[in-house]
């Protein structure tokens, strides 16, 4: 849920789409939350409405966290049938609204389990602005029935303002070969960035304050939703290019590049650097599926899964999700299966 500042028309269209989904949620029996974007009937994977989904598993239960309200939560035993489990926050944290103004939705969560703790990064911003924040929440369990279940807001991780040439949204936590944590982020402006984190606080490191450039495109620099995934000898940088959130008119595409170092440079299959405009298209509009993007990955045992949102042209551009298995070719490049069911 991230918008370029130069394109006012896209902003207006995106806002209209989100308003429509919010009204659907309010009218649904399970949608008691204002500013929700979920619509869970019929309750199958292809009809699960979720922007910018991130997937994780605890025990035998899968969890999807996504943009909307105080970060939407859904669960499934099989990646097919989903149940609404409310939100991480009952209201937007006050420190977020103090920084970016009054908002109704937190964006683009990223969830990871590290040493007994679940780390959930999220973004707060408004369409067309890079006055943005990335926050962090933690929990020791994802199971709401567990007496220990409690989300603790750890506050600000990164902030950008109009004086910066980047946008602090779309966070993604990853680790290098020495288990050092890093946070990828960015949307439009000067593209995707990377910041080293402190291994104890999971907030920016004081020993390395460099903001590394990962990927950039020519103006208006339509690239966002970075996700770094390590496989074999490479770090793979997945991202979304072009425009999200316009229903059946969405032009989002999922792209990828790779590097032998987490800080880059990342190259596409042709050897062009992603920080010089290179990318390899992994997924794009086809048939009724429009604008597939907002992707994240999850290692589910021996299989790698990629989850993304898309818009159904046969259903008035309704937002839905697909989950696909990532297959690795003989030369190490990823390909995607058909949606799993």
H/E element sequence: HEEEEHEEEEEEEEEEEEEEEE
Q: Rg from C-alpha positions? A: 18 Å
- Which structural category fits the helices and strands? mainly beta
Low-pLDDT stretches: 2-44
Overall mean pLDDT: 88
Provide a count of the helices.
Answer: 2
Number of strands: 20
Helix content: under 10%
Reading side by side through the largest sheet, how are the strands ordered? 1-2-3-4
- The end-to-end span amounts to 26 Å
β-sheet strand percentage: 35-45%
- Give the overall form: globular
Largest sheet report: 4 strands, antiparallel
Descriptive notes:
This protein has helices at 8-27, 94-100, and strands at residues 54-58, 61-66, 72-76, 83-87, 107-114, 117-124, 132-139, 152-160, 172-175, 181-185, 192-196, 211-215, 223-231, 234-241, 253-259, 280-283, 289-300, 303-312, 318-328, 334-336. The chain is built from two helices and 20 strands. The protein is 8% helix and 40% strand. The protein is mainly beta and 341 residues long. The two termini are 26 Å apart. The strands form five sheets. The protein has a four-stranded antiparallel β-sheet, with no helix packed on it. Strands 5-6-7-8 form a four-stranded antiparallel β-sheet. Strands 9-10-11-12 form a four-stranded antiparallel β-sheet, with no helix packed on it.
